[in-house]
Amino acid sequence: MPDTDDILLSARGLTKTFGEFTAVDGIDFAVRRGECFGFLGPNGAGKSSTMRMVGCVSPVTGGELRLFGLDPATDGPAIRARLGNCPQRDTLDEELSVEENLWIYGRYFGLSRKEVKERAAELLDFAQLTERAKDKVEPLSGGMKRRLTIARSLINAPEILLLDEPTTGLDPQARHVLWDRLFRLKRSGVTLVLTTHYMDEAEQLCDRLVVMDHGRIVAEGSPRQLIDDYSTREVLELRFDAEDHGAYADKVAGIGERVEVLPDRLLLYADNGDEASAQVHARGVEPLSSLVRRSTLEDVFLHLTGRTLVD
Ligand SMILES: Nc1ncnc2c1ncn2[C@@H]1O[C@H](COP(=O)(O)OP(=O)(O)OP(=O)(O)O)[C@@H](O)[C@H]1O
């Protein structure tokens, strides 16, 4: 068991309501120093509402939340001084230059001019934006703006960095650059807490994660553990020349552990996909195409909720 001193962030029965609506429904979690912890779930699952409470920008409705052993209700400023907060939408000042965006933020945290300049130069290097330091923000690419937002959220050398959907809207190459930066940050000892609805992002970055749906946590573990617990090693994907793939579910029933019917394909869960495929053919069932792949967190989510993560 980890030492409790290693727990930087913990929640018990954490709840957020908006009027009659419960966005976060009594969740428990704990984040250890140095790990990357994720909230994975579809839009509306309550991830941002949770992050906003953790970031001390939205009051807790119920339950207990502690960061560094402190209570956001009474110690908000002390907590915020040790947090970096990277919100879902970039809130950069587009009129200012890249480096000015960092300077202003540093001054806001009470750093001296000298400290701000030194720190900004380091962070621009980290964000691979040194060459763009004097440029205005507005023409930067989406990936650059995201990296600048992350750099800005690091100006106070936070112990925990909160990232709400860090790569939403970025192209695949920009996502990979960002993942690389986040890996480096983690290696340097910063604890990362992020939300995502991309299962590949959760698999790539998170040491541990919770799967959220309708304001609740439906599973928790490392990506590997979750896949082991809630899926099979492999998945056989079968596509048929049919409007209704459900009609084929009976024909392959009993092969592997489980069948899921999606609008455009059948997913047959089996530890050995090739063996399952041979059994399908042996029954005289001829799909248009068949593909064997490893299970992913998408399969975990589908098993837990009966829905796909990204509709
Ligand atoms: N200020 C608010 N007032 C009323 N309802 C809200 C408010 N903020 C969020 N909600 C509702 O709470 C639910 C959870 O939203 P939240 O943004 O936390 O989900 P999410 O998992 O982060 O999804 P997304 O990726 O879309 O941000 C949604 O149904 C949303 O409409």
Topology:
Blueprint (H helix, E strand, L loop, with lengths): L6 E12 L2 E12 L3 E5 L6 H8 L7 E6 L4 H9 L2 E4 L11 H11 L4 H14 L15 H12 L6 E5 L7 H16 L3 E6 L2 H7 L2 E6 L2 E6 L1 H8 L3 E6 L18 E5 L2 E6 L2 H10 L6 E6 L2 H9 L6
The structure holds adenosine-5'-triphosphate.
The site of adenosine-5'-triphosphate has 12 residues, from strand 2 and helix 1.
Organism: Knoellia koreensis
Membrane topology: Peripheral membrane protein
Family: Belongs to the ABC transporter superfamily.
Please name the defining characteristics of this protein.
311 residues, binds adenosine-5'-triphosphate, Rossmann fold, 2 domains, six-stranded mixed β-sheet, four-stranded antiparallel β-sheet, Alpha-Beta Plaits, single chain, alpha/beta
Sheet having the most strands: 6 strands, mixed
Shape: globular
| N- and C-termini, Cα separation | 38 Å
- Record field, number of beta strands: 13
Strand residue percentage: 25-35%
- Element-level helix/strand string: EEEHEHEHHHEHEHEEHEEEHEH
In the CATH hierarchy, what is the class of the largest domain? Alpha Beta
Would you give the CATH topology of the largest domain? Answer: Rossmann fold
Please identify, by name, the CATH architecture of the largest domain.
Answer: 3-Layer(aba) Sandwich
Low confidence ranges = none
In the CATH hierarchy, what is the superfamily of the largest domain? P-loop containing nucleotide triphosphate hydrolases
Q: Report mean pLDDT, rounded to a whole number.
A: 93
Please give the domain count. 2
Helix content: 25-40%
Number of helices: 10
